[in-house]
Amino acid sequence: GENVEQHPSTLSVQEGDSAVIKCTYSDSASNYFPWYKQELGKGPQLIIDIRSNVGEKKDQRIAVTLNKTAKHFSLHITETQPEDSAVYFCAVLIKAAGNKLTFGGGTRVLVKP
Amino acid sequence: DAGVTQSPTHLIKTRGQQVTLRCSPKSGHDTVSWYQQALGQGPQFIFQYYEEEERQRGNFPDRFSGHQFPNYSSELNVNALLLGDSALYLCASSRHSGWGGYTFGSGTRLTVV
């Protein structure tokens, strides 16, 4: 089955700096790549997603890049703020195989003021 | 517009007991998926329901079962509870015809003692 590796497991950055989280996946048929933010006591919230026909997508301070050849994708957060502190999960989905998401292990991000 | 609603929010059960968790999907969504999230880990796919049938199943024993009702709401049942079943159980809804577009609920925290 699909395997998703996420690094780093923890990330501490100074407010205003950038944060980068990387994920690799095993199944080349994967074609949808969302990123979720999970705050304490809440469910995962979609923050950005990308489909396999696109290499990069940006939404204000958040961007995702996809390298299909290398089977990895990354989340970039610029100008980090304390409210960006949370656990971030990458996930992959193979649309032809149904709407089943396979998640990475998560990255705990701490933004220090 | 209400998002995904899960009940109860917290639950404590004894080993060997049975539990039922409930989920109401986001308006306009017809597919419900259930995930188990152990502490410090990413969510793991349990199963998915569409048109009142189980469409996909993850690597979980048949102690885990579910149901989807005509109004798209869903239940997750776990029999013969084990200590290892202690986790956050997340419900996610989506549109079967869509790309990902998952909306997660806040989850039910199950503790087995």
Structure characterization notes:
The complex is a heterodimer of chains A (113) and B (113). Chain A has 113 residues and is an all-beta fold. Chain A contains no helices and 11 strands. Chain A has strands at 4-7, 10-14, 19-25, 32-38, 45-51, 56-59, 62-67, 72-77, 86-93, 101-103, 107-112. Chain B is globular. Chain A binds chain B through residues 4, 6, 32, 34, 36, 41-46, 49, 51, 89, 91, 93, 95, 97-106, and chain B through 4, 31, 33, 35, 40-45, 48, 55-56, 58, 90, 92, 94, 96, 98-100, 102-107.
Task: Using brief descriptors, characterize the structure shown.
heterodimer, A: 113 residues, mainly beta, six-stranded mixed beta sheet, five-stranded antiparallel beta sheet, 11 strands, 56% strand, B: 113 residues, 0% helix, globular
Helix-strand blueprint:
The complex is a heterodimer of chains A (113) and B (113).
Chain A: E1 4-7, E2 10-14, E3 19-25, E4 32-38, E5 45-51, E6 56-59, E7 62-67, E8 72-77, E9 86-93, E10 101-103, E11 107-112
Chain B: E1 5-7, E2 10-13, E3 19-24, E4 31-37, E5 44-50, E6 53-57, E7 64-68, E8 74-78, E9 87-94, E10 103-104, E11 108-112
Parallel strand pairs in B: 2-11
Antiparallel strand pairs in B: 1-3, 3-8, 4-5, 4-9, 5-6, 7-8, 9-10, 9-11
Q: Which structural category fits the helices and strands of chain B?
A: mainly beta
Alpha carbon gap, first and last residue of chain A: 41 Å
Q: Name the biggest interface.
A: A-B, 27 and 27 residues
Alpha plus pi helix count of chain A: 0
Would you tell me the overall average pLDDT of chain B? 95
Approximate shape of chain B? globular
The fraction of residues assigned to DSSP E strands of chain A is: over 45%
Rg of chain B, rounded, reads: 13 Å
Which H/E pattern describes the elements of chain B? EEEEEEEEEEE
Q: What is the tally of helical segments of chain B?
A: 0
Strand elements of chain B, count: 11
Nearest-angstrom radius of gyration of chain A?
14 Å
Classify the helix fraction of chain A into a percent range. under 10%
